[in-house]
Amino acid sequence: MALPPDATVSDVGEFGLISELTSLFEQGEQVLVGPGDDAAVLRVRNGHVVVSTDLMVEGRHFRRDWATAEDVGHRAAAQNLSDINAMGGRATSLTIGLAAPADLPVQWALDFARGFAAECAEVGATVVGGDLTRADQVVIAVTVLGGCTVSPVLRSGAGAGDVLALTGRQGWAAGGLAVLGRGFRSPRVLVEAYRRPEPPYAAGPVAAEAGATSMIDVSDGLLAEARHLAEASGVAIDVRRDAFEVPEPLVAVGSALGADPLGFILGGGDDHALLATFPDTTSVPEGWQVVGEVLEGSGVTVDGAGYDGPTGWTHF
Amino acid sequence: MALPPDATVSDVGEFGLISELTSLFEQGEQVLVGPGDDAAVLRVRNGHVVVSTDLMVEGRHFRRDWATAEDVGHRAAAQNLSDINAMGGRATSLTIGLAAPADLPVQWALDFARGFAAECAEVGATVVGGDLTRADQVVIAVTVLGGCTVSPVLRSGAGAGDVLALTGRQGWAAGGLAVLGRGFRSPRVLVEAYRRPEPPYAAGPVAAEAGATSMIDVSDGLLAEARHLAEASGVAIDVRRDAFEVPEPLVAVGSALGADPLGFILGGGDDHALLATFPDTTSVPEGWQVVGEVLEGSGVTVDGAGYDGPTGWTHF
Q1: Can you tell me whether residue B137 is helix, strand or coil?
Q2: DSSP letter assigned to residue B297
Q3: Structural domain includes residue B307
Q4: B286 and B225, same structural domain?
Q5: Which of A63, A29, A57 lies closest to A43, judged by CA?
Q6: Chain B contacts of A56, Cβ < 8 Å?
Q7: Is B38 labeled as ligand-binding?
Q8: Domain annotation covers residue A155
């Protein structure tokens, strides 16, 4: 369809846009019935499905002037794919609900869909259905389905004596967000990390096979996620400051903003790193870094003491 | 948790409200891992899953002054459960994404969840996960999962010579909406039909077993859905006016508003009736009413001619 560059969603209409969007989504081999019917039908292996859902709201989770539509598509897919990763599973199928103002440029929706599909392709997952409707602001609702080849890794399995380990970039997106919030666009590597996270998708299933006792993805903040693990498992977790090597761009931003750069690492989310516990250091897979330990008790400490910096994000 | 009656979502916070909501959702036997982890894990039978997603936006799909929170919960669940019904399947599991303004009363969210859970209980389905975040208006994103015991019934299987049949109330919700739109609250039976649809949940699987060749749920309007069937199947559909007995409350509303009451039936959605095609009249199950026929060609006609009344709802 040839569109004027400034065409809006209301110009092409609901069904016109759905048709355009659907054509962007290739279907995977798991798809028995794809988009266009009342529901999709998917082949499922191993007798179970892993499912998670997430919302992204314009002005809250993204700003159209801080990230391209394609970036937002990548991020929306990444944060959902990461939830399956954190169970030790592999994502296969996603649905997208898109609520949008009538004056949203069609090009934005198409670029969003392209970014979304490209991120899904990283793990071989495909978009199998969705819904489109009108709202005052852009709201993106994604549901992701997948499966595990070994038992899913829950938040609740950590035991005293386990080691806490991390894999993936951590704090980069928070650094990028801080930079954007001050009106800057550099260091570019951090801004890019915020716009397009690179979750360690291969690491979740590997950790499950290696015997991870608990796992979570870092979307709200490292210490906040550690607290989720500690609460679900009924244990205490101590994080070691010296386990983290602060990358140079975060040092630069900390220095420019007068902030402790470790704060981005301990309090930041949005990189979708994985945080997991393993029975001992020998069971920690390659590419993971031991950053703390699991103790009897409750709560999360840093070097054995309370931490008074920001620990994560809260929505209300 | 004892709450002041006017507590808002921002008073109890994201995690407080999630905890309250989760406690309202009983878990079904299909749930291997329920709410509270990065993802839910569900047992799946027959090697497939049927999945659909829908959005409801405040001011567009519902108004808080026209329906109670419990009603909105019933409707949100019903419109999704109905999509699985329209495949001939049975729903088992749902996720809810709720975006809400910070000043949304907690009581609204709890009543919504109660209505949602009660509607799901009608078919034995349960809420297995969700997400909660802040937005300028209430947006509800639901994904439903289920399964079929026979092949799913698609929109694309109708053939010339089939009969078109309908089951469930049709036009009642549209009548109720018209009444509310004029500032009235009666006939109460229509307003109630709008607030709480009663989709014919048992009928979808029965139709599938009876050999329905195509099926769709009427959410956007009867003639609009007939058009979806006709387009997907590459056939024409003719609907017969005299097949419909116009119920007395619709006659009354038509008369009060100076409208053709049949318009509510032909153009109305939201009752989530089922529209299906069957090979012949003898294969139409009990409780279905033959309302038209499938012909060679394309398009939808009423008594062999074009129809110039409203045929359905469009979102942009």
Answers
A1: coil
A2: S
A3: no
A4: yes
A5: A29
A6: 133
A7: yes
A8: no
